[in-house]
Amino acid sequence: MPMRVAFLGPEGTYGERAAHSLMRLESIEAPELVACSGLRSVVEHVVDGRCESAVVPVENSVEGGVTAILDALWSYTNLSIRRALVLPIRHALLSSGSLDDISEVLSHPQALAQCSGWLARHLPRAVQLPASSTAEAARMVRGSRFRAAIADRSLAEQQGLQELAYPVNDVPGNRTRFLLLQNGEVSCEGDVASLAFSLHQNAPGALIQALEAVAHLGLNMSRIESRPSKRELGEYVFFVDVELPGQQKAESLERLTHRLKPLCEHLLHFGAYPSTVLE
Fold first, then answer.
1. Alpha carbon of 87 to those of 36, 81, 127, 217, 242: distances in Å?
2. Chain CA centroid to CA 262, Å
């Protein structure tokens, strides 16, 4: 049977494009891509076994971490990261009308935020409405002369829309990092490792001690992000990415987790994995 891979649907999303690229990098032929409605649903498809893998956005170079995915990674403790992919994001404004007619702009909230400056300059009176994905926004505006969608330009032909402007993202180097998630045993052979932890208590120096555990091993921390623990105000969960240089990647990761465990109330490590940047 082909590998089933969940992604944020419908067809035409950046998540689908990332899924195809990740499958090629993994040398997986003819996968069955399963479109899901909502990022939480994408993760749940791999957690409950409906799919063998899931492709999710975890971080954008403009808007930062994708909170729904960070929260899901902390909630479901059996998840591991197989591979990461950094995808350039170029948004287009698509519609069945003209730019002068547009009074509503639909897209995923992240895409709207990534284009907020362009919208303020060119469509300052247009109401911005969230959609579950960029591709769903393109479907919703089809046939409307006063609605436009921010989405991938390839959807213009697919949905019978006109491309009113391209690119409309504020930052030319806009990129999103996607993860290929699986359920079960983690790998320890990649160049990047991802971990998440909570501390025993909110006390002076507690976070510094955890970060010093990384520094003392001579490892570079390429990302740190916090999310509320959802238990009480002022209590946080921390997500970190650490680069693993050299040949002894598994040993470096084992030493790091050994140093962190006494300092943490909970510690999750999602494995070490390769990361690819597409241009």
1. 20, 17, 28, 30, 20
2. 30
Residues 108 and 130: beta-carbon distance below 8 Å = yes
CA torsion sign, 255 to 256 to 257 to 260?
A: positive
Q: How far apart are alpha carbons 241 and 249 in whole angstroms?
A: 14
- What is the SS3 assignment for 42? helix
Q: State the pTM of this model.
A: 0.89
Residue pair 168/138 in contact by the 8 Å Cβ criterion: no
Which residues touch 152 (CB under 8 Å, ≥6 apart)?
12, 13, 14, 17, 90, 91, 92, 134, 135
- Domains of the chain by range and CATH? 4-89+174-183 (3.40.190.10), 92-165 (3.40.190.10), 192-274 (3.30.70.260)
What does pLDDT average to over the chain? Answer: 91
Q: Tell me the residue length of the chain.
A: 279
Confidence at residue 245, expressed as pLDDT on a 0 to 100 scale: 83
How confident is the model over 99-108, as pLDDT tens digits?
Answer: 999 999 999 9
Angle at 263 between CA 259 and CA 269, to 5 degrees: 65
| Nearest-angstrom CA–CA distance, 109 and 116 | 10
Supply the pLDDT for residue 127: 96
Q: How confident is the model over 226-279, as pLDDT tens digits?
A: 999 888 887 889 999 999 887 778 888 889 999 999 989 999 999 999 999 987
CA atoms within 13 A on the CB side of 153: 11
Q: How many CA atoms does the CB half-sphere of 155 hold within 13 Å?
A: 33
